[in-house]
Automatic annotation (TrEMBL), chain A:
A Pfam family this chain is assigned to: E1_dh
A Gene Ontology BP annotation from the UniProt entry: pyruvate decarboxylation to acetyl-CoA
Residue segments, region Disordered: 1-39
Catalytic activity: N(6)-[(R)-lipoyl]-L-lysyl-[protein] + pyruvate + H(+) = N(6)-[(R)-S(8)-acetyldihydrolipoyl]-L-lysyl-[protein] + CO2
Keyword Coiled coil belongs to the record: yes
MF (Gene Ontology): pyruvate dehydrogenase (acetyl-transferring) activity
Source organism of this protein record: Brassica carinata (Ethiopian mustard)
Keywords: Coiled coil, Oxidoreductase, Pyruvate, Thiamine pyrophosphate
Keyword Oxidoreductase assigned: yes
Protein's recorded name: Pyruvate dehydrogenase E1 component subunit alpha
Subunit text: Tetramer of 2 alpha and 2 beta subunits.
Coiled coil: 358-385
Automatic annotation (TrEMBL), chain B:
Species, as recorded: Brassica carinata
Alphabetic keyword roster: Metal-binding, Mitochondrion, Oxidoreductase, Potassium, Pyruvate, Thiamine pyrophosphate, Transit peptide
All copies of domain Transketolase-like pyrimidine-binding, residue ranges: 42-217
Protein name, UniProt field: Pyruvate dehydrogenase E1 component subunit beta
Subunit structure: Tetramer of 2 alpha and 2 beta subunits.
An annotated GO BP: pyruvate decarboxylation to acetyl-CoA
Length: 427, 369
């Protein structure tokens, strides 16, 4: 079973097949007749605009075409600054996860810890294009998504150690990284659970723009795996995101394995990108071990969402170098498969690209690596030194408003207001 | 407030039922429910509709989402007129995707909006229960207060008339066992208005359990309750009827049955105190216990399955806190421990009836075997 994948899966191998796109050009619905009801889209002028333009304009362009188009003028996909930012982010992800493994085996971290080694290109490729107000929703494999989004290494490490200085004060843990400041909306243990939540965040962005008339073009990126793509909620959300034209990007981190269940054994049609057009959105397949390719696709998908053209489904072919979690002995995966993907390590690939294209030299990259090593060491020291949560924290934060009388106009609990009387009509 | 009054209604065997009724009416704050002749009446349906309408017009972040809430005017006509008034951007007819649209509502609440998610019945919420519990109820705790979820899940709960096993379950006990959720169960029109408005304004996830058979019932409603800033406190029970011999606690449709039972008991000289729980979580243990300390006897009534039900929790609470005040074993009346049958006579047997409550109260008063 494990050895069969490289033979049967047509996605690997020739590069011409690697970045495929399917437009919903044959699947666009006819313009809505005045009396029919199409949910909220009826009142959207954007929908009519889309329909008028769709036939002559491709919303998402395959990466290869971009690369070809750029070749005559400038053969590089990134500038030096961008390259260093990407490199640093991926090195941070890798070092952090390696440190997590060390700390887990030393007993500082406990419970379920799922590491992201090998998949850094996907997180970096997408999240480094987002602003602070854009949202990211992830699964239990969320440490690196949180780091890429801007949550500090200290906060994430402390959270993993269960200390009060963690981003969720030790109450969430490895699988529940939340940060309101950075719009990291979790961290969900159930696969597929984050997808509707992400769709809701995208819904809010559109609602703010259209109903509250605010200037809002925030997008949401939902990360999830290949196993999730067989879950009902995924399809429910593909349907509604396309129906309401929500600014969301569904990113499938297809690492071919759901714990020990191979993607090919569990899926009738393993090509996940094809499921996008079935719901009326573009489906793109990209090499998830190459951060530059991911970034190019991400740019277009994010721009599409910001323009109000709706969702995109991006399938990133990637691989996790470690087991499903630190408790997984990882016996079912073939050594040859692991070796094949280890040779495509995204960090090594980017390093090679930067050096070959004279965007950076060894010394600069080494200094970044050293800086990140120090940062991660410091995060561990910080987490070690931080206190555990106090006993009283056990009962805190169950409710935003524990007394149930609501929060008054002055922002304090109504029941604490000395003028609080028995007739709530006055309060 | 709606707590216990200092004055006790004095009852002895000589006072007739009708004068007792009028004495209760004049003496208790809960007289609001038995308002003087000439005041307005309102159905629970209109009360809910007006509550949602007023909250939507007061706060543009409130929106309604659910199956058939828009063009169909609501499966039970609770959201009638809202689509015309607020437009399709604020009243969403969803596809039949409970998990999906509940999750979308939760995600929208994470990001700052205030969704009111309707389940056609709470039985369908089982397809979305992961989101109600894992992404809504637990989020404020998991994120250590960073992300609160100001969402309301509402819809009919419990048995209707002849709808069969899969449409008749009562979910009060399931949801009320989860920390992080607030669970409300209104009875009268005033309850419906006040509690729904409070729920929509509340910054936490609220499960609002209505009852299909109550939608068409009319209740008197006071001017105060019609005011657009009227809110009832979450977590406080209401004493619908003062009494001194036995405490009957219940919620939703069973409150009506309990009041009828109290009338029947009064004819036999037993003065029953009927408590309308209104809020299942947080449960108003203080009111219940104070009442039991006064009467020394407890009968709890609910429609749902008996094992691990709301009644079980109330009995445990009373036994833990007021054991030495009890003069009789606690009585528990719940639905039969079977999936709801379809045949009308069997359905009647599977649900508590007024006679069951009367019998239990008499047992508690040692008036019968």
């Amino acid at each position: 079973m494990a050895t069969a994948f490289s033979a049967t899966l047509p996605l690997h191998g020739s590069s011409s097949q690697e970045n495929r796109l399917l437009l919903p050009s044959t699947r666009l619905p006819p313009p809505p007749p005045p009396s029919s009801f199409l949910g909220s889209t009826r009142s959207l002028p954007i929908r009519r605009l889309n329909h008028a333009h769709a036939s002559r304009r491709s919303p998402v362009v395959a990466v290869q075409e971009i690369v070809k188009a750029k070749k005559p003028t400038n053969s590089l996909l990134i500038t030096k600054e961008e390259g260093l930012v990407l490199y640093e982010d991926m090195i941070l992800g890798r070092s952090f996860e390696d440190m997590c493994a060390q700390m887990y085996y030393r007993g500082k971290m406990f419970g379920f810890v799922h590491l992201y080694n090998g998949q850094e290109a996907v997180s970096t490729g997408f999240i480094k294009l987002l602003t602070q107000s854009d949202s990211v929703v992830s699964t239990y494999r969320d440490h690196v998504h949180a780091l890429s989004k801007g949550v500090s290494a200290r906060a994430v490490m402390s959270e993993l150690f269960g200390k009060v200085t963690g981003c969720c004060r030790g109450q969430g843990g490895s699988m529940h990284m939340f940060s309101k400041e950075h719009n990291m909306l979790g961290g969900f243990a159930f696969i597929g659970e984050g997808i509707p939540v992400a769709t809701g965040a995208a819904f809010t962005s559109k609602y703010k723009r259209e109903v509250l008339k605010q200037d809002c073009d925030d997008v949401t990126v939902a990360f999830f795996g290949d196993g999730t793509c067989n879950n009902g909620q995924f399809y429910e959300c593909l349907n509604m995101a396309a129906l309401y034209k929500l600014p969301i990007i569904f990113v499938v981190e297809n690492n071919l394995w759901a714990i020990g269940m191979s993607h090919l054994r569990s899926t009738s049609d393993p090509e996940i990108w094809k499921k996008g057009p079935a719901f009326g959105m573009p489906g793109v397949h990209v090499d998830g071990m190459d951060v530059l390719k991911v970034r190019e696709v991400a740019k277009e998908a994010v721009a599409r969402a910001r323009r109000g053209e709706g969702p995109t489904l991006v399938e990133c072919e990637t691989y996790r170098f470690r087991g499903h979690s630190l408790a997984d002995p990882d016996e079912l995966r073939d050594a040859a498969e692991k070796a094949k993907y280890a040779a495509r390590d995204p960090i090594t690939a980017l390093k090679k690209y930067l050096i070959e294209n004279k965007l950076a030299n060894e010394a600069e990259l080494k200094s970044i690596e050293k800086k990140i090593d120090e940062l991660v060491e410091e995060a561990v020291e910080f987490a070690e030194a931080s206190p555990q949560p106090g006993r009283s924290q056990l009962l805190e934060n169950v409710f935003a408003d524990p007394k149930g009388f609501g929060i008054g106009p002055d922002g304090r609990y109504r029941c604490e207001d000395p003028k609080f009387t028995e007739g709530t009509a006055q309060v | 407030m709606w707590g216990i009054l200092g004055r006790r209604a004095v009852v002895n065997g000589g006072i007739s039922a009708s004068s007792l009724r009028s004495r209760v009416r004049s003496s208790s704050v809960s007289a609001r429910s038995y308002a003087a002749a000439g005041s307005k009446e309102m159905t629970v349906r209109d009360a809910l509709n007006s509550a949602i309408d007023e909250e939507m017009s007061a706060d543009p972040k409130v929106f309604v989402m659910g199956e058939e809430v828009g063009q169909y005017q609501g499966a039970y006509k609770i959201t009638k007129g809202l689509l015309e008034k607020y437009g399709p951007e604020r009243v969403y007819d969803t596809p039949i995707t409970e998990a999906g649209f509940t999750g979308i509502g939760v995600g929208a609440a994470y990001a700052g909006l205030k969704p009111v998610v309707e389940f056609m019945t709470f039985n369908f919420s089982m397809q979305a229960i992961d989101h109600i519990i894992n992404s809504a109820a637990k989020s404020n705790y998991m994120s250590a207060g960073q992300i609160n979820v100001p969402i309301v899940f509402r819809g009919p709960n419990g048995a209707a008339a002849g709808v069969g096993a899969q449409h008749s379950q009562c979910y009060a006990a399931w949801y009320a066992s989860v920390p992080g959720l607030k669970v409300l169960a209104p009875y009268s029109a005033e309850d419906a208005r006040g509690l729904l408005k409070a729920a929509i304004r509340d910054p936490d996830p609220v499960v609002f359990l209505e009852n299909e058979l109550l939608y068409g019932e009319s209740f008197p409603i006071s001017e105060e309750a019609l005011d657009s800033s009227f809110c009832l406190p979450i977590g406080k029970a209401k004493i619908e009827r003062e009494g001194k011999d036995v405490t009957i606690t219940t919620f939703s449709k069973m409150v009506g049955f309990a009041l009828k039972a109290a009338e029947k008991l009064a004819e036999e000289g037993i003065s029953a105190e009927v408590i309308n729980l209104r809020s299942i979580r947080p449960l108003d243990r203080a009111t219940i216990n104070a009442s039991v300390r006064k009467t020394s006897r407890l009968v709890t009534v609910e429609e749902g399955f008996p094992q691990h039900g709301v009644c079980a929790e109330i009995c445990a609470s009373v036994v833990e806190e007021s054991f030495s005040y009890l003069d009789a074993p606690v009585e528990r009346i719940a639905g039969a421990d079977v999936p709801m049958p379809y045949a009308a006579n069997l359905e009647r047997l599977a649900l508590p009836q007024v006679e069951d409550i009367v019998r239990a109260a008499k047992r508690a008063c040692f008036r019968s075997k």
